Amino acid sequence: MKVTVEIYGQGRTLSGRYSRVTEDFPASRGRVVMTDALSIALSGLRAQSTRLATTASNIANASTAGSVPGADPSAPASTVYLPLRVNFTSVQSGGIGAGVAATVTPDPNGYSVIYDPSSPYANSEGNIAAPAVDYAEEFVNLIETRAVWKANLSVIKTQDEMLGDLLDEIA
Question: pTM for the full model?
Answer without folding.
Answer: 0.72
